[in-house]
Amino acid sequence: MKIISTILKGLRVLVLALIFFACIGPLLTKPAMAEDARLADIVVTNTRDHLLLYFTVTNCFTEDMKTAIDNGVNTTFTFFVNLHEVRNWWWDKKIADLKVSHEIKYDSLKKVYQVRLSSENDKVVLAEDFDQAKRFMAEIVGLKVTELRNLRRGNRYQINMMAELDTIKLPFYFHYVFFFLSLWDFETDWYSVDFRY
Questions:
Q1: Which DSSP state fits 153?
Q2: Considering only CA atoms, which of 111, 109, 134, 113 is closest in space to residue 125?
Q3: Within 13 Å, how many C-alpha atoms sit on residue 188's CB side?
Q4: Tens digit of each residue's pLDDT (9 = 90 or more) over 143-172
């Protein structure tokens, strides 16, 4: 009797899962992924003391993502940057390896987007409209990659960078919809800039 009861419970779960997938099937034809997210406007420069990096992630938001953010889903972009000294007859020497993030959340009471920028010492900036919030999220502005004293005059260097959308953390009551998370993932290719100091 217990075996039949267990089989019936399993069949109920299977039927509910099939109904659920049939209902969300049309949603899967229009994925929430950002199409062809890439880095643009890459600038490597320096101040008197630091090597600085600027770049922008393009094509990284969709209407579905905006809707989710407006409904309380926190979203984080993570940026990876590394700097190597290029050596011809030896392995390249790693100078810097950075990981910074920008996190956005919508405050529905104040009707503002809060963007936390770990690239700027966890500074929190407020944006009243989504276009401004997108710029804060997608731009790396004056990231200090390393101190210039770590570089040697005349040597060749390569700076590499990429961005990815961290897995969306859904509210507790949505955790059973795991397969949706893959629709939100994006990562850019690695981009490289070679220069001499």
A1: T
A2: 113
A3: 24
A4: 999 999 999 999 999 999 999 987 555 555
Q: Which amino acid is at 164?
A: E
Shared domain for 16 and 99, answered yes or no, is: no
98: β partners:
81
Nearest alpha-carbon partner for 62 in 168, 189, 161: 168
> If you write DSSP's letter for every residue of 148-171 in order, what string do you get?
GGGS-TT-EEEEEEEEEEPPP---
User: pTM for the whole thing?
Assistant: 0.74
Structure tokens at 109: 């009471």
Tokens coding 28 = 């899967």
Provide the CATH number for the domain around residue 186: 2.60.40.10
pLDDT in tens, 13-69: 444 444 444 444 444 433 344 458 889 999 999 999 999 999 999 988 888 888 888
